[in-house]
Amino acid sequence: MAQSPQDLKVAILGAGMGGLTCALALAREGFKNIDVYETAHDLGFVGAGIQLAPNMARVLDRLGVWKQIEAEAVNIVETSVRVGATDAELAHVPLEYIADTYGYPHMVGHRSSLANGLYQGCLRHPDAIRFHFATTAQDVTFGSKPSFKAVPRDTTQEPYRVEADVLLGADGIKSNTRVAMLDLLGIQAGVKDTNQAAYRIMIHKDQVKDDPELLALISGNKVTRWIGEKRHIIAYPVSNNTIYNLSTTQPDINFAAATNATYTTRGDKSVMLQVFGDFCPMVQRMLGYVPEGEVCEWKLRVHEPLPTWVHESVALVGDSCHPTLPHLAQGAAQAIEDGAVIGKVLAKLPDTTPASIHKALKVYEKIRKNRAYALVELAAASGRALHLGDGAAKEERDKQFAALREGKGPVPDKWADADVQREIYGVDVTQEATERFDELFAA
Residues near 365 by Cβ (< 8 Å), separated by ≥ 6? Predict the structure, then answer.
């Protein structure tokens, strides 16, 4: 048995935002034996834009990596919700107050900057964290010493068995850890299609140097959302205002014949332009800058809520247990909150018995589960409100937008609503884990 919590052997499956945060949070708590297994050959640092909300920044700052990420990000001071077809403004919401209210501004950045910042933080603990890239985790088993089969992608290397004191399944929406846990417990819960898909697009500043309108958007500090029936586009500048990031949501049509294992497909530019063909000329110009052959479409999937995230000394993290639609921009932030809480609860273990490890992981679940699932549902509800077609519901929503322009009522785009922001940004999960551990552990 490990002499102290910091002597425990921790295996983390997946080096996404949740897995990297788990590793870094544990290392900063003094844990010495942390192994991260990742299927990819390296992190690659690819991807599109990502919103860096205050609840995420708070965690990253405590982990010592926020300054590097912040230096490459863009501070957002306003958001505009507009009619996709006409570019008429439905709502304008100032966001300068966020920094004063929550201690951090609402920033946006490149996903690669966030991942690299976390990874560089991990590399500052070489004696504690070891990365095993190009290695797939299969055949997860449970018990006092959870284990899995590590399968190198290099077929000249033999698979081998890894045993740990704590196993954290941060292996994404296609999580092998979740599948093994649900099978063992006899729980029926599956990945669900949302009937939505997304294009993710990045336009470089030099592409639009002769287009004053688009150049102003890239050079600004604003998030803009264009909405239409069953579709929207959200856009903002990243990478120190050198790139304009666009993320769309539209009906999922192109994946009709795709297998359950497929989440991306090569898109067709002409089809993309057709999907948004009734949107305003500015949107048409933006989409027109996408090079032929570089259109990719993502299937947006979620998972049925799970009755538990924890079994024995194994816990699920991030998208393995609470994947979400992007309409609140909280997917990565919620995985990062998971990692921060896991670092705190394992560091506060009174002893290193399997029973105590299990109870500590249940404290993590108690702090995180209701919050994460509430935001999953709120993101879905916000998407439904944004995508309304003609009818009574849309008329009521547009009345709310009209009232908002006169300074009254909530913002139908929940991401920009002050009451929703308070529920998301105003919660400090790391502090809650610290203050409530003894109470929840004893329960």
Answer: 308, 309, 310, 315
Q: How many domains does the chain have?
A: 1
**Going along 252-361, which residue ranges are E strands?**
264-266, 296-303, 310-311, 314-316
Q: pTM surpassing 0.85?
A: yes
Identify the three-state secondary structure at position 55. helix
Q: Which residues of 244-260 are buried (b: 16+ CB within 10 A; e: fewer)?
A: bbbbbbbebebbeeeee
Q: Cβ(58)–Cβ(34) under 8 Å?
A: no
User: CATH code at 376?
Assistant: 3.50.50.60
pLDDT value of residue 257: 46
Pick the range with the lowest mean pLDDT from 215-219, 220-224, 262-266: 262-266
Domain that holds residue 146: 5-73+111-190+304-386+417-442
Give the max Cα distance, the chain.
67
Helix axes 54-62, 331-347, angle to 10 degrees: 40
pLDDT of residue 58: 98
Residue 291 lies in a domain: no
Q: Which residues, 6 or more positions from 186, have their beta carbon under 8 angstroms from its beta carbon? A: none
384 burial via Cβ count (<10 Å: 0-12, 13-18, 19+):
middle
Does residue 287 sit within a domain?
no
* φ, ψ dihedrals at 56, nearest 5°: -75, -45
Looking at residue 255, what is its pLDDT?
Answer: 55
Query: Mean pLDDT over residues 96-121, rounded?
Result: 96
**262 confidence band (pLDDT: 50, 70, 90):** low
Tokens 């729980």 identify what position? 187
Residue type at 352 in one-letter notation: T
Each residue's pLDDT tens digit, 379-394 = 998 888 888 888 888 8
Give the strands of the sheet with 296-303, arranged side by side.
Answer: 89-94, 78-83, 222-228, 231-238, 243-251, 191-204, 296-303, 264-266
Please indicate, yes or no, if residue 36 is contained in any of the structural domains.
Answer: yes
Strand order in the sheet with 147-152: 135-141, 147-152, 160-163
Q: What CA–CA distance (Å, rounded) separates 31 from 366? A: 23
Structure tokens at 206: 């030099």
Classify residue 185: in a domain, yes or no: yes
Nearest to 314 by CA among 183, 121, 209: 183
Question: Which carries the bigger pLDDT value, residue 255 or residue 404?
Answer: 404
Q: Count CA within 13 A, CB hemisphere, residue 443.
A: 11
* 71/240 Cα distance (integer angstroms): 8
Tokens for 360, please give them. 């500590």
Distance CA 84, CA 88 (A): 8
